[in-house]
Amino acid sequence: MFTATLIAAGRLSPQTLSDANERLAAAGCVPTTSGWIDEGDAADIAFGFAPDAARRSLESAFTGVDVVVQPHAGRAKHLLVADMDSTMITVECIDELADYAGIKPQIAAITEAAMRGELDFAAALDARVALLENLDADAIEQCRAERVRLMPGAKTLVRTMRAHGATAILVSGGFTAFADPVGAEIGFDRVIANRLDVVDGRLAGTVGKPIVDSATKERTLRAARTEFGLADDATMAVGDGANDLAMIGVAGLGVAFHAKPIVAQAAAARIDHNDLTALLWAQGIPRREWVQS
């Protein structure tokens, strides 16, 4: 059996569910039962066949509604591996740090191209960090305090999953100076990120090697899955950029969160309209069981 979860906080109606059932029936998916996870916010429709057809028939069919289609068995995940920039926080840290050096547009253009998959991630990171050479290292803490904000739902997602027995790992192509405090604030079990080199109180224009990149993210998920003896379908990965594609591809549920087109097209699920708590509804966890931040 499969489940299609419709998510639209405060905007779902019984008519939406009825229309979705009709679409699934017309696509040959044989819907059976439906019900609210949280009335008006999220609902499940069970069906028997053709999950790809189900996704095609439901995605973008309803304004402001996200749809997650997956096997019903194993929907509760025991491992979360997440990207940081533009996923667990609202900004790209290197772009904001560049603003303190007066070169944000130049670096942001490289970041955007890398996240769209148009540039090699490691080479693009080296190029951007080189442009920050001689920036006062105090700008890192200033940037973190002034610019870095948690993505809505981040704390609730991670803390609820951990309360349900899951492990949460933050793996960022960004920098430990941002990722360590962000990971601690949200509640991640582990944090993996790149290290900016600092010499005499200024950025050296280099980053520690090896670089945390797409391959690192995939290896982290695979290694944690083995460490905890988890089945493939017990894992979830979430990210927004091209360097998240590998881990999204091997996760039991790979999620593109407000993602670049290349990621949205490849991921098994996409969240375009709701915040990160959508990933709790996708697992069938009702609001009464959430650990509210």
Q: Would you kindly provide a written description of the structure presented here, covering whatever features stand out?
A:
- The chain is of the alpha/beta class and 293 residues long.
- The chain has 2 domains: 1-73, ACT domain (Alpha-Beta Plaits, 2-Layer Sandwich); 77-293, Rossmann fold.
- The chain has 12 helices and 12 strands.
- It has helices spanning 14-26, 51-58, 93-100, 104-115, 121-130, 138-147, 154-163, 176-186, 214-227, 245-250, 261-266, 278-281; strands spanning 2-7, 31-38, 42-47, 66-71, 79-82, 167-175, 190-194, 196-199, 202-207, 235-239, 253-257, 269-271.
- The strands form 3 sheets. It has a 6-stranded parallel beta sheet with strand order 7-6-5-10-11-12, sandwiched between helices. It has a 4-stranded antiparallel beta sheet with strand order 2-3-1-4, covered by helices on one side.
- Strand 11 (253-257), helix 11 and strand 12 form a beta-alpha-beta unit.
- Helix 3 (93-100) packs antiparallel against helix 4, helix 3 (93-100) crosses helix 6 and helix 4 (104-115) runs antiparallel to helix 5.
- It is elongated.
- The mean pLDDT is 97.
